[in-house]
Design brief:
With 118 residues, this protein is an alpha+beta fold. It contains 2 helices and 5 strands; from the N terminus they run αβαββββ. The mean pLDDT is 91.
């Protein structure tokens, strides 16, 4: 009797089934982790934009609103003033943020609130 080496069909099907089950478990977890990291990066980019608007505010204090008023500053204004990098990227679209992106600066109770209007 001749002995052959190799895998039987049952063994191959068993391995394929196990790999399929592992893929069903792992792929959703990886997808969720990628989405969470993109959202975290997006929030970080918005925080960077707000910090640059605060720097702009410190240099343009006479232009800031008073008595509950508000003003909008565009991302282009922050870029041309050197307050932010020219190529800050939106991780959701993988493209640079639009230059017309507005940052609303509102005075409330002698404090300024910064909101990115996207």
């Amino acid at each position: 009797m001749k002995k052959t080496s190799g895998f039987t069909l049952a063994e191959l099907l068993g391995v394929i089934t196990i790999l399929g089950l592992l893929a069903l478990l792992i792929i959703p977890a990886i997808d969720k982790a990628v989405k969470n990291s993109n959202e975290t990066l997006y929030q970080s980019q918005l925080a960077t934009i707000i910090e640059s608007a605060k720097s702009w505010s410190a240099d343009h204090i006479t232009e800031l609103p008073v008595n509950g008023g508000s003003i909008n500053v565009t991302l282009d204004t922050l870029k041309t003033g050197g307050y932010i990098s020219i190529d800050i990227e939106n991780p959701k679209t993988k493209k640079p943020f639009d230059g017309n992106l507005n940052i609303k600066i509102t005075e409330k109770n002698s404090q300024y609130q910064y909101t990115v209007l996207d």
